[in-house]
Write a structure and sequence with these properties.
2 domains; about 30% strand; 5 helices; alpha+beta
């Protein structure tokens, strides 16, 4: 309060009558003004800086609400199908294949399923391989194409052992070749056939024959010339 009351009278000088009264009155006015300011601040809920806080938070909430708005529903290309039901309900699948399509362990069915673009449709095509439970030998391979909300069988091979897969937009079917006396675990070779979609169906593009070596221990030796 020294700044408000001053430094006091100079040495040897008598104080002027009424000076203390004026100082007291001035001090009272300042105190009353400070008190009024304090009461006003309490009535408004805080200082000016804090009053602006909730308004800023409200704006942030509005922006955050826009950021977390629901995204569009996924396209049909990401849909997954019940491959077991698809095969079981398909009249084009052989009865023998359906008979083998049963759980191996608990509710695990012997099917391999892959998705990809083979036919240029709006939804992914579905490739289903049905295997045996014991040795996982392919007994049927199928391709399903989405047409008007339903999947239609557009390709099938039921000549075991067989396996189909998608390779860079082409359908590649591998058929293992067994010679007389070959055990199931050791075929003599394989035929790899590549199919391509066109004019509403799959047509064979080319095929490759791979003969397996019968060498033991990895020492392959050429077969004698006939």
């Amino acid at each position: 309060m020294r700044g408000l009351t001053g430094a006091g009278p100079s040495p040897g000088r008598r104080p002027t009558p009424g000076r203390g009264t004026l100082q007291a009155a001035f001090t009272a006015v300042v105190v009353l003004a400070a008190l009024a300011l304090f009461v006003s601040a309490c009535a408004t809920g805080g200082t000016g800086a804090r009053d602006e806080g909730p308004a800023h938070e409200g704006a942030s909430d509005s922006v955050a609400g826009a950021a977390v708005s629901p995204s569009p529903s996924p396209s049909s290309t990401s849909a997954r199908v019940d491959a077991v039901k698809l095969v079981q309900d398909d009249p084009a699948v052989a009865t023998e294949v359906k008979r083998e399509l049963k759980p191996c362990v608990a509710d695990e069915y012997p099917v391999d399923v892959s998705y990809g673009d083979l036919t240029g449709g709006r939804a992914d095509d579905v490739v289903v391989n049905v295997l045996t439970c014991g040795d996982a030998v392919g007994i049927g391979s199928y391709v399903y194409r989405e047409v008007s909300g339903r999947y239609e069988n557009v390709f099938k091979v039921e000549e075991p052992p067989v396996y189909a897969e998608i390779d860079r937009g082409d359908l590649v079917v591998t058929k293992q070749v067994y010679e007389k006396g070959d055990p199931v675990s050791s075929p003599s070779g394989e035929n790899v056939i590549t199919y391509r979609w066109g004019s509403g169906r799959f047509t064979e593009e080319f095929r490759t024959r791979n003969d397996y070596s019968n060498a033991v221990g990895g020492d392959a030796s050429p077969s004698p010339a006939p």
